Amino acid sequence: MKRIGLALISACCVLTAGAQSRLSVGGYGEAAFSRNFYSDHVSRYSQPEEHKDDPSHGRFDIPHAVVWLGYDFGKGWTLGTEIEFEHGGTGIAYEKEDEEGGEWEQETEKGGEVELEQFWIQKSFARWANLRVGHIVVPVGLTNAHHEPLNFFTVYRPEGESTIMPCTWHQTGVSFWGRYKDFRYEAQLVAGLNSDNFTNTGWIKKGHKSPMEFDVANKYGVALRVDNYSVPGLRIGLSGYYGHSIGNTYPAEKDGISTKYKGRVAIGSIDLTYNAHNWIVRGQADYGYLGSADQLKYMYNRKNSKSPFKHSAFVSGNAYAIGIEAGYDILSLWSKDKGQRSKADSEKLYVFGRYESYNPYASDTKNTSYGYTKVQRIVAGINYMPIKEIVVKAEYSHRFLDSQYNHEPSINIGIAYEGFFK
Question: Of 16, 176, 351, 361, whose CB count within 10 A is highest?
Answer without folding.
Answer: 361
